[in-house]
Amino acid sequence: MRWPAMVCRAALLFSIALSLAPHSHAEDGYDLWLRYRSVEPEWRETYTVSTRQLVLPRRQSPTLRAAADELRRGIGGLLDIDIESADKVGRDGALLLGTPQESPAIAALELPLEDLARGGYLIRTEQVDGQRTTVIAANDDIGVLYGAFRFLQLMQTRQPLEQLAIASSPQVDLRLLNHWDNLDRSVERGYAGQSIWDWWRLPDFRHPRYTDYARANASIGINGTVLNNVNANADILTARYIDKVAALAGVFRPYGIRVYLSARFSAPMEIGGLDTADPGNPAVQRWWKEKADEIYAAIPDFGGFLVKANSEGQPGPQDYGRSHADGANMLAAALAPHGGVVMWRAFVYAHDNPDDRARQAYSEFKPLDGEFADNVVLQVKNGPIDFQPREPFHPLFGAMPGTPLMMEFQITKEYLGFATHLAYLGPLYEEVLEADTCTGPGPGRRDAACDGSATVASVIDGSLHDYGHTGIAGVANIGRDRDWSGSIFNQANWYVFGRLAWNPRGSARAIAEDWLEMTFAADDAFVQPAADLMMASREAVVDYMTPLGLAHLMATGHHYGPAPWVSELARPEWNPVYYHRADAGGIGFDRTAEGSDAVAQYAPPLQRKFSSRASVPEKYLLWFHHLPWDHPMPSGRDLWQELVYRYDRGVAQVEEMRRDWAQLEPFVDRERFVQTSSFLAIQEREARWWRDASLAYFGAVSGRELPPGARAPAHSLQYYRALSYPHAPGH
Ligand code: GCW
Known about the structure:
The chain has 22 helices and 16 strands. By secondary structure, it is of the alpha/beta class. It folds into three domains: about 40-170, Chitobiase, domain 2; about 175-520, TIM Barrel (Alpha-Beta Barrel); about 545-590 and about 625-720, Alpha-d-glucuronidase, C-terminal Domain (Alpha-Beta Complex). The longest helix has about 35 residues, at about 670-700.
């Protein structure tokens, strides 16, 4: 064979090999829930008749172009077709996109667009020029983009497209990710590799991944991102970094995502050359005003600042004898002329405050209700301690009618097994959002009532108190790992967060099903058992880590694994023994009036409910009560036996999750099946470790024997105490 012929033949073989490969790249999770793999033949036919033409207005903003690109990409993948573009509906089965301002065809339809909130959309089947047409319409381009993603979701979840009449509007304005990413690319509490922000090569190099990040977020309605850690480095506010931030803002803008920054309160000293950061000082006030002007000159739609002040060693206004309101309002004044907001975190507890840590944020902020400037939002963690597997809702949610409160959830699983444990957080978020603060007026009643009219969701979406700003933030679980979140199933936590931020009354189960269909297979034989597994997973973690209302028993610093015995750290509330208070007599934190009286921070009906041993929900039992080991439980067991039972139940649940996942192998590609199986094996081992170490310790403290038939811990208490993990990630 002569050379050219050989080369030709090799090229031919190579291209045949390529075309035989099922996908151009492996199922490594990079595509998230936007995989757009071919639908089954029976769906291809019915979908094709509804996607014959893509009709866009003549003038297209970058956002509209992003919507069209996504539809082309999605339909191309799902149906293996290139959708025809047109500037006018010319045949049956067109997709008509746009706003009435830009699209005369949409204006002519006189759709009920006035009922939509900003970003809301309609998807409707209409007759346009005599042709059956699917219209994706909104008042603003970002609404059209959200509508395009929703349309694709309909196909990804195999919904009929013939008679659509969908209207959807976001219920919350600020739907934000919070990255705890540092400038050196380490990520505090990050378990998915380094930060995706390549600060060093920005602004010149804009990694293509930034666009995919924006697409993924826009697909679930997320509209803002705080790029840097709340334990902030002031350098992010220097001119050099503002340039880099502006480059990211440019990538995100078409997707409706604004950038925000965590601001270090002492920045005027660290990068401004001042000798104080006192918010009462005119030079400090001027510095922040000029800084805000500088940022807005580079990023006209900059969102604002997130601030962690006077908490865990961070600087703040109290260093100068000023209040949190003084500090927040000074920053708010600098941002106000530009329309920016300050998200001031309520996660404060002071190292010199002897009060119950669970009470401190409320004590600090409740007296300041109504003292904050209009563009300040108080960002409150879901529970009063710190993102535990389970906490009651934060009492501030029932206590600040005069100050907009936004929710802070954690998506990264600092306290729920890092990236490897499968713990779907939908039920956790849902439980908090559904919780009744019992501060509703109650129809015809004078007393506050638990009638479901004052849920946490109704606080957060502003409907209860008519807040001027509404918001939900989630501490991101995103890193440089190919699968973004450190495991495939962690992607579901990012997904459900976005969906619940859009609609805090959404159903965790329904969202899990959507995610499974989009991520794996739209087949009920897979989706139902997989959704069961997900829905049970968070409760399993509660059981094997911190059952019955226990909290914060994790090892020091990195929070990996159990360490209920830790008692020697400098501050009382750094020690797990502070939280469980176990001794020979009993276990639990007495937060009733006889104890720390943290119950008093809830509305009277809840005070009564939580204070009484008879009416406190079992899931919060040891959160509110210190009880003797032989306290009788409704199950007929005593408290000690119940604790053992719960730990065992948690381990058993993980064993079951493993078995159930193994059954699903036929539905899942090799790569993602194996990752999940391996991680479940880790989880099972670690669930045993949690159970064994905790029972070894509580058994020793209580002097109680394990109930007959219970498995003895695999090792001695000494063994568990000696384990050490200096290189655990995320710390
Ligand atoms: O949960 C704790 C974490 C800290 C975190 C802090 C906070 C960013 O252990 O790593 O710091 O909360 O939310 O500020």
